[in-house]
Automatic annotation (TrEMBL), chain A:
Gene3D superfamilies given in the database record: 3.40.50.970
Key words, A-Z: Oxidoreductase, Pyruvate, Thiamine pyrophosphate
Lineage of producing organism: Bacteria, Bacillati, Actinomycetota, Actinomycetes, Micrococcales
One protein family per Pfam: E1_dh
Positions in coiled-coil regions: none
Protein name: Pyruvate dehydrogenase E1 component subunit alpha
Gene label: pdhA
A GO biological process held by the record: branched-chain amino acid catabolic process
Single GO MF descriptor: oxidoreductase activity, acting on the aldehyde or oxo group of donors, disulfide as acceptor
From TrEMBL, chain B:
Keyword DNA repair applies: no
Keywords, in A-Z order: Oxidoreductase
Compositionally biased intervals (Polar residues): 1-10
CDD domains: TPP_PYR_E1-PDHc-beta_like
Gene3D superfamilies: 3.40.50.920, 3.40.50.970
Record Pfam families: Transket_pyr (PF02779), Transketolase_C (PF02780)
Protein name in the entry: 3-methyl-2-oxobutanoate dehydrogenase (2-methylpropanoyl-transferring)
Species, as recorded: Cellulomonas soli
E.C. numbers: 1.2.4.4
Region annotation Disordered: where it falls in the sequence: 1-20
CC cofactor: thiamine diphosphate
Lineage: Bacteria, Bacillati, Actinomycetota, Actinomycetes, Micrococcales
Biological process terms in GO annotation: branched-chain amino acid catabolic process; response to nutrient
GO molecular function list: branched-chain 2-oxo acid dehydrogenase activity; magnesium ion binding
Record domain Transketolase-like pyrimidine-binding: where: 29-204
Length: 378, 357
């Protein structure tokens, strides 16, 4: 029985089959035709590196070095394909699982782990990378992205024809998030303002334990048109296809053509987070089905068939992965506890008498233990 | 491809765990389990009672508080909702108007805010606006507070925001036994109840009398949802706490006893209404009062208790009412939460300061 509703794969844009054959698409071929072996190998490298990051972070969590981790396992093509379509001046408003996008924006992935280790609420310079802070309250950042895009539009940074000036904004969220009022309000604001924003939904089939069928009766991409926002469904495990549809959507945004909703149909191969137990709600048959559609294998096979993969490339990639692993392990272990005083910093941009008096009280209180020459009771 | 069924069906009765249905007498249980059994009783008692929330079905909730309930009562009674808090509360209002008793789970304290509008502008006011013609017996369960080393938005203490809103009852159990009883009383209440569960204490065990009769939730003399409880008697100082800080207060009382200080501990149990009489009675005896809570001190529960105790007991007080709580800052990173939380040392320090007057 072929699935219906939000689980159907009808209408997915696809440029690579899951067995690695290139299939042509009348509308989207032109967005990838210029990608040579070097560029394609670059996409493979990104995905492999990001997966390595995932594996390392997951095992660090198991070793007690991280409080929690949200894996991106299985979603590499959706993230790397869309992320690589961005221009340097574009802005990203991520949710909490967009490590692949962070990587292509040049964020040191150990900075992402500051959040999951519990030493920082952010960890990276969001302005420098044009990659905003992670958002844990589902869907709220889609409005920020839309507002940011409205600002870009007001500043006249769309439709000038200057490829270094015209700017788009992209925001990432999950299938579950499409149920939130905020995401629906973002679609309303994006539509009526013709905002240069791309709403990129990674439909990884699950919102913790709830399948997409608990959020919708129709493919998620069908939501866009009802708001007046054009939509595309794309095979989210096909990095060429996600690159192509995102490139098109970003171009539309930058040229003044307004918002696009993209549903990237993919699969969360890991647990929701390291605290989750997916065996309670999904079958191993389902996981196996998706393992056969692994985004990295798919591009890898295609490149093998093209004869583009050399032993040197593989060796280089292996070495890069090793180095990243080492960097992550070493860096995370040395991320110490922040100073207690830092708790009181940056609550406000200007002095606040309540914070100041509490800070002063706390300093005296801490000092009293030292004066008494005793350890704490804790 | 494989698909998941649209609504997970209840499994056949044979698959149910008989143990949970037949548990009786006094049992040693963790709080999460005690709430689970309280919910089970309520579902058995009244076919109009429904549970609604994210992941509460097959997964049993992220804290497993609703574990096994969908299996035993079906997906129509234990409903996995779309990921939309405003939607959960808003539709529960509609269901309640239609005669149902929805019991909602908000997954974490920090995610109640998308529903803040529905709770404060609609749920709290409908009875008043209808001049009493409409009641909204909706319970909103919220795992709250810190101490579990979580990432941001997973350790908030927003109880006062709701206690400040007229029309809502706001309660918080501190032990498995209280949790078992209070959740059933909350569900029985015709008023909307915000039920704040101290998530850091979910796994702590305590004795629960599963046969305890259920007092009317709003009887003035029974321990319904209107009363504070003296959980330890003492003569030198009164500690007032609720939810997660009750255990901290009891620990501090133990520690202070070794120095010869006799500490009385009052568990508020309910923030709205606030049982000023029980606190005042205690303070008239001990003459000293310290209020402890995890939420920031500024405009917190402590402020309310201190003001009322000052009014009621001014001539009995030997020291100003002191407050021990969180600081005026967003909840800090996990590695610093133990500095933020009012722990044993800060409570003992406050006891010393109070006694020094
Ligand atoms: C407003 C809000 N409600 C609930 C949660 C708890 N929660 C965290 S992730 C999640 C599921 C999200 O699913 P989806 O949007 O599909 O994204 P995915 O995690 O699959 O990437 C839930 C319910 C939250 N973070 N924010």
């Amino acid at each position: 029985m072929s699935p219906t509703g939000p689980l159907t794969d009808d209408g997915l844009v696809r440029l690579l089959t899951h067995t690695g054959e290139r299939v042509s698409h009348p509308e989207y071929d032109r967005y990838v035709d210029h990608l040579d072996d070097h560029a394609l190998l670059g996409l493979l490298r990104d995905m492999v590196i990001v997966r390595r990051f995932d594996t390392e972070a997951t095992s660090l969590q198991r070793q007690g070095e991280l409080a929690l981790f949200a894996q991106g396992l299985g979603q590499e093509a959706a993230q790397v394909g869309s992320g690589r379509a961005l221009a340097p001046q574009d802005h990203v408003f991520p949710s909490y699982r967009e490590h692949g996008v962070a990587h292509v924006r040049g964020v040191d992935l150990t900075d992402v782990l500051r959040l999951f280790r519990g030493v920082d609420h952010g960890g990276w310079d969001s302005a420098a990378h044009r990659f905003h802070l992670y958002t844990l309250v589902i869907g709220s950042h889609t409005l920020h992205a839309t507002g940011y895009a409205m600002g870009v539009q007001r500043d006249g940074d769309v439709g000038t024809g200057d490829p270094t000036r015209d700017t788009a904004v992209i925001t990432y969220f999950g299938d579950g998030a499409t149920s939130q009022g905020d995401v629906n309000e973002a679609l309303v604001f994006a539509a009526v303002n013709n905002a240069p924003v791309v709403l990129f939904c990674q439909n990884n089939q699950w919102a913790i334990s709830e399948p997409t069928t608990r959020q919708a009766r129709v493919p998620l991409a069908d939501r866009g048109p009802g708001f007046g926002v054009p939509s595309v469904r794309v095979d989210g495990n096909d990095v060429l296809a996600t690159y192509a549809v995102t490139t098109q959507a970003l171009e539309r945004a930058r040229s003044g053509g307004g918002p696009t909703f993209i549903e990237a149909f993919t699969y969360r191969m890991g647990a929701h987070t390291t605290s989750d137990d997916p065996s309670r709600y999904r079958s191993s048959a389902e996981e196996e089905y998706w393992r056969q559609r692994d985004p990295i294998d798919r591009l890898g096979t295609y490149l093998q068939l093209r004869g583009a993969v050399t032993p040197e490339f593989l060796a280089g990639l292996e070495a890069e992965g090793e180095a990243l692993g080492e960097h992550i392990r070493a860096t995370v272990r040395t991320m110490g506890r922040p100073s207690t005083a830092s708790m009181f910093e940056h609550v406000y941009a200007t002095p606040h008498s309540v914070v100041e008096s509490e800070r002063a009280w706390f300093e005296r209180y801490e000092a009293s233990f030292l004066d008494a020459g005793e350890g704490s009771h804790r | 491809m494989t698909t998941t069924t649209e609504t997970p069906n209840a499994q056949p009765a044979a698959a149910r765990k008989a143990t949970e249905k037949t548990l009786t007498g006094v049992q040693k249980l963790p709080m999460a389990k005690a709430i689970n059994l309280g919910l089970r009783r309520a579902l058995e008692r009244d076919a109009k009672t429904l549970l609604m929330g994210e992941d509460i079905g097959q997964l049993g909730g992220v804290f497993r508080v609703t574990d096994g309930l969908q299996r035993d009562f079906g997906a129509d009674r234990v409903v996995d909702t779309p990921l939309a808090e405003s939607g959960i509360v808003g539709t529960a209002i509609g269901l309640a108007l239609r005669g149902y008793r929805p019991v909602l789970e908000i997954q974490f304290d920090g995610f109640i805010f998308p529903a803040f509008d529905q709770i404060t502008t609609q749920l709290s006011k409908m009875h008043y606006r209808s001049r009493g013609r409409l009641t909204l017996p909706v319970v909103i369960r919220v795992p709250f507070g810190g101490g579990i080393g979580a990432v941001e938005h997973h350790s908030e203490s927003p109880e006062v925001l709701f206690a400040h809103t007229a029309g809502l009852r706001v309660v918080s159990p501190s032990t498995p036994a209280e949790a078992f009883t209070m959740i059933q009383q909350a569900i029985a209440s015709p008023d909307p109840v915000l039920f704040f569960e101290p998530k850091g204490r979910y796994w702590e065990k305590g004795e629960v009398d599963l046969d305890a009769p259920l007092a009317d939730p709003h009887t003035p003399d029974g321990l319904g949802l209107d009363k504070a409880r003296v959980v330890r008697s003492g003569t030198d100082v009164t500690l007032v706490a609720h939810g997660p800080t009750v255990a901290t207060a009891l620990k501090a009382a133990e520690a202070a006893a070794t120095d010869g200080t006799s500490v009385e501990v009052v568990d508020l149990r309910t923030l709205s209404p606030l049982d000023t009489a029980t606190i005042a009675e205690s303070v008239r005896r001990t003459r000293r009062c310290i209020v402890i809570h995890e939420a920031p001190v500024l405009y917190g529960t402590g402020a309310e208790v201190a003001a009322r105790i000052t009014e009621e007991c001014f001539f009995h007080l030997e020291a100003p009412v002191l407050r021990v709580g969180g600081f005026h800052m967003p909840y800090p990173v996990a590695k610093l939460e133990h500095e933020y939380l009012p722990g044993l040392d800060r409570v003992l320090d406050a006891i010393d300061r109070s006694l020094a007057f």
